[in-house]
């Protein structure tokens, strides 16, 4: 099974936190004596180091739940996919042609989304086979000699403790050995100070939630400072934004209707307000009895300029497509900017 206990993922996450915090300490410490529990560091470096450790450990706390949950869901999905994977039929031995016996399944190490199925010959002929669900055989990429690019010969021996693979090149004499240790490592023995350092670097729930609140306050203060600096730099735009006329839907309809009448346009219509999380629009159309094949482009352009000019100091704008025309009917869409920030950013973009 790929999915482990919650403790496994928590410990794995905390080990990375501890390792990185130790690296930060080593960057600033002049001397560290673990046996005596002493870390020598200058006062100035100590202040910087503790600030870095505080924010790193705090951010690791904030990201822990989401990250470990993602790991658990990923491994749970792999277990489900592996469990539901069905071995293909009619896999035969290349030596004797007998139907091979399905033994096991695993994920392809080079493509973690593909499941491979392991088959053996009932007559013990070699080679065994790894195949995919579509019966395609898995082919191992040859290991090439780093000196002459010839294919290396491989010979592996396995014991309870390790797998040793020897590589040799018949062309140039190159040789190498690769060892895989099969012994289960006791991480607590390898790292006798882990639990002690986990207490130092991995925040408790109480400390972590206090950090969350403080981090939020810092971000709010930073945002206010950034906003103040921005508005100070753009005083003119801020002044225009504050003076912008905020029009409701009835007001904007009245304004567009008045402009239409001045242009001798008729039968103006408004669609229902289009509201989305990103923006709010109002579509309108109007009949132009004076439009001809020769003058409709100019009349559309004049109407567009009038609308844009009349809306310049309001929180409404004509959409970028402007005014379209078809068979004597002009149409367009108006967008409203409702919040103070939206209006301010609009004015900045237009300047």
Largest sheet: 6 strands, antiparallel
Number of domains: 4
Q: Which outline best applies?
A: flat
How many distinct beta strands?
Answer: 14
The structure class reads: alpha+beta
Strand content: 15-25%
In the predicted model, the low-confidence regions spanning at least 5 consecutive residues are: none
| CATH-derived topology of the largest domain | Alpha-Beta Plaits
Residue-averaged pLDDT, rounded? 88
Query: Ends: how far apart?
Result: 61 Å
CATH architecture label of the largest domain: 2-Layer Sandwich
CATH class of the largest domain: Alpha Beta
N to C succession of SSEs: HEEHEEEEEEHHHHHEEEHEEEH
Number of helices: 9
Report Rg: 36 Å
Secondary structure: helix percent: 40-55%
What does this 3D model show about the protein?
- This protein folds into 4 domains: 6-84, no CATH class; 101-181, no CATH class; 205-233; 241-350, Alpha-Beta Plaits (2-Layer Sandwich), CATH 3.30.70.
- A hairpin with a 2-residue loop joins strand 13 (324-326) and strand 14 (329-336).
- The model has no long low-confidence stretch (mean pLDDT 88).
- The protein starts with 5 loop residues before the first helix and ends with a helix.
- Helix content is 44%, strand content 22%.
- It is of the alpha+beta class.
- The chain is flat and about 95 Å long.
- The strands form 4 sheets. Strands 9, 10, 11, 12, 13 and 14 form a 6-stranded antiparallel beta sheet that branches.
């Amino acid at each position: 099974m790929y999915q482990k206990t919650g403790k496994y993922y928590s410990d794995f996450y905390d080990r990375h936190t501890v390792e990185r915090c130790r690296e930060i300490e080593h960057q600033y410490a002049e001397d560290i004596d673990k046996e005596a529990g002493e870390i020598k560091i200058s006062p100035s470096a100590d202040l910087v180091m503790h600030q870095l450790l505080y924010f790193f450990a705090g951010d690791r706390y904030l990201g822990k739940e989401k990250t470990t949950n993602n790991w658990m869901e990923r491994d749970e999905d792999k277990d489900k996919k592996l469990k539901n994977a069905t071995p293909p039929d009619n896999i035969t031995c290349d030596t004797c042609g007998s139907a091979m016996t399905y033994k096991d399944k695993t994920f392809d190490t080079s493509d973690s989304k593909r499941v491979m199925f392991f088959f053996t010959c009932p007559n013990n002929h070699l080679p065994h086979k790894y195949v995919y669900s579509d019966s395609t055989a898995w082919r191992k990429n040859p290991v090439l000699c780093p000196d002459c690019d010839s294919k290396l010969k491989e010979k592996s021996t396995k014991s309870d403790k390790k797998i040793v693979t020897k590589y040799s090149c018949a062309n140039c004499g190159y040789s190498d050995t690769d060892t895989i240790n099969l012994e289960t490592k006791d991480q607590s023995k390898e790292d006798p100070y882990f639990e002690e350092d986990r207490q130092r670097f991995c925040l408790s729930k109480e400390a972590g939630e206090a950090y969350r609140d403080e981090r939020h306050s810092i971000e709010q203060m930073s945002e206010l400072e950034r906003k103040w600096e921005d508005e100070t730099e753009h005083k003119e735009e801020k002044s225009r934004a504050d003076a912008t006329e905020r029009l409701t839907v009835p007001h904007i309809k009245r304004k567009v209707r008045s402009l239409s009448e001045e242009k001798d346009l008729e039968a103006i219509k408004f669609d229902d307000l289009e509201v989305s999380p990103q923006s709010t629009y109002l579509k309108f159309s109007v009949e132009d009895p004076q439009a001809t094949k020769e003058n409709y482009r100019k009349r559309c352009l004049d109407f567009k300029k009038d609308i844009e000019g009349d809306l310049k100091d309001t929180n409404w704008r004509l959409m970028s497509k402007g005014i379209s025309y078809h068979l004597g009917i002009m149409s367009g869409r108006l967008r409203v900017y409702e919040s103070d920030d939206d209006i301010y950013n609009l004015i900045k973009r237009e300047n």
